[in-house]
Amino acid sequence: MRNLLEFERAFPDAAMIVLDQNYRSSQTILDAANAVIGNNLVRQEKDLWSALAKVTGSGATVPATTGTKLRS
User: Fold this and answer.
1) What are the backbone dihedrals phi and psi of residue 21, each rounded to the nearest 5 degrees, phi first?
2) Tens digit of pLDDT at every position of the chain (72 positions)
3) N or C: fewer beta carbons within 10 Å in the chain?
4) How many Å apart are CA 54 and CA 58, to the nearest integer?
């Protein structure tokens, strides 16, 4: 993980290409993933997005509070 985070410092002339489009999941799923991933403060910034339609009425919710552990 440290190698990824220090990449820009180690290779200042390199171009960073962010792969943020997801071709499999709907935007609803990616919105939930972005909410969870956003809690990780030690990461490169990016927002996942999809050209697939946003799904409504799925009943899935994302906790609004941080620090909540999810059970599997």
Assistant:
1) -90, 130
2) 677 778 888 999 998 888 899 988 999 999 999 999 989 888 878 889 888 877 766 555 555 555 555 555
3) C
4) 10
Compute how many other C-beta atoms are within 10 angstroms of the C-beta atom of residue 35: 13
- The encoded tokens of residue 52 equal 């697939």
| Residue 56 CA: distances (Å) to CA of 23, 27, 29, 59 | 19, 10, 11, 8
Residue type, 59: G
Bridge partners of residue 21, in order along the sequence: 49
At a CB cut-off of 8 Å and minimum separation 6, what does 31 contact? 54, 62
Helices (H) then strands (E): counts for the chain = 3, 0
First-to-last alpha carbon distance for the chain, in angstroms, is 24
